[in-house]
Design brief:
Blueprint (H helix, E strand, L loop, with lengths): L6 H20 L8 H20 L3 H6 L7
Length: 70
């Protein structure tokens, strides 16, 4: 598993992921009042944070994309 995420991509994923995890918990805005949408948002946020942490995105591998400059 080689890294395919660059630093800017990692920071963006981490920030967006954290926002998607925290927004339903704070119920801001009320669009997250549906539990299905809230749990879905938190799941996507967790995936973004995990991929940022391990510097690897399986979807990027499938599409042949790499933002990492080795």
């Amino acid at each position: 598993m080689t890294a395919n995420l660059g630093n800017i991509d990692r920071v963006a994923r981490a920030l967006i992921g954290l926002a998607l995890i925290l927004a339903p918990l704070l119920n801001m805005p009320a669009v997250w009042s549906s539990s299905l949408v809230a749990y879905g948002s938190m799941a996507v946020g967790a995936i973004l944070v995990i991929t940022a942490g391990v510097r690897f995105c399986p979807l990027y591998r499938i599409l042949g994309i790499s933002t990492c400059k080795l």
